[in-house]
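--- STAGE predict ---
source: upstream dedup step, 1 unique chain passed
mode: sequence only
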Amino acid sequence: MSQSFKTNQPIYAQIVGRLCRQLVRGELQAGDKLPSVRDMAVQSGVNPNTIQRVYAELERQEIAETRRGLGTFITESKSRLRQVREELKNEQIVNFIADMKDMGFGPDEIVEGVRKELANSKERGDY
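--- STAGE serialize ---
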């Protein structure tokens, strides 16, 4: 199943981001085996070299490790996975605040808007 990609960011970086979001959501767990390069390439609709780069980047970030003859696995370091979760959260918050500031909203308006939306989300049962 091929995925759609944005043109403003390298495909490998987008796939790394998607895998990290899967980690944050709990869809991938510490110690989980990732698909083979070939299988992931087919699933993603990209060249296997792109997936090799994805896996190399995950290793560089200490999110995954390759075990010779066994495949690539999500790290078993729960502290590293908590750190990834925190980094992604902070990145999203920084981007959100920058976007809101670009639109002319001040800190109080941003905080009040977030509070209202969280309350609405809770009432809807979304949160």
